Amino acid sequence: DRQTKKDLEIFGDGKSPNSVFNFYNQTKTIGGKDYLLELMENPLIDIEELNNRTELLRFIASIDFDLKISSGQFGYIEHYVKLNTPTLRNNIIDAFFNNNSYRMNPGNDYYLIQSGIQQLKYLFNHLKEKLEILSKYDLPKGLNEQTKLLKEFIENDDFTDFNKKGITISVSSLNRLDFMLRKKYKNELHDFIKSIYVLDAYISIGKVANTKKLVFPEYSESLKPHISIS
Fold this sequence. Notes:
Blueprint: H1 2-7, H2 20-24, H3 30-41, H4 47-63, H5 71-81, H6 92-104, H7 108-134, H8 141-154, H9 171-184, H10 186-211
């Protein structure tokens, strides 16, 4: 109940730095933090699900898996995904005029589109490297599902502009990518972001378990309630 959670400082009402939630929270994204909170507010009771989650967290901790993207970098992506402005038009003429218009009269929306897509380019290429590493392992069930979704999205042929060398994105590519991401693949982009949030939360728990040298529990299927701690 609420009083027990308060006495145990599970969440600390968002104020206590010593709460269990804050102990495990090393997330880099707002969505990752929210998903971690959701995990802790809705504990599992099915032993198979408990074992699957424990296996996933143990795996992440064992290989010290992480995503090298800062909260600031991902913040640009989150702002970009939430933009309510019309997408840029997918043709070279409009791309040229959009860019010239921004140069003469800098606008916040165009800047957010540039910055968001720029950070997505980095994230796509970083994920390809990370997923290549993970492909060498026999992945736990939950992690396997997430990585499949991520892999399908970043390897979509409509996003080949992200594969081009260099940091900058051309004017025409910017318009095309914005059209693809925020219109053609709008729902898929939201699912992609959600998968990053899930990974962020699991990585946070695994990282803490690794650095604090925590031991993972083993669950008994005995009908008689008991607990054994060393």
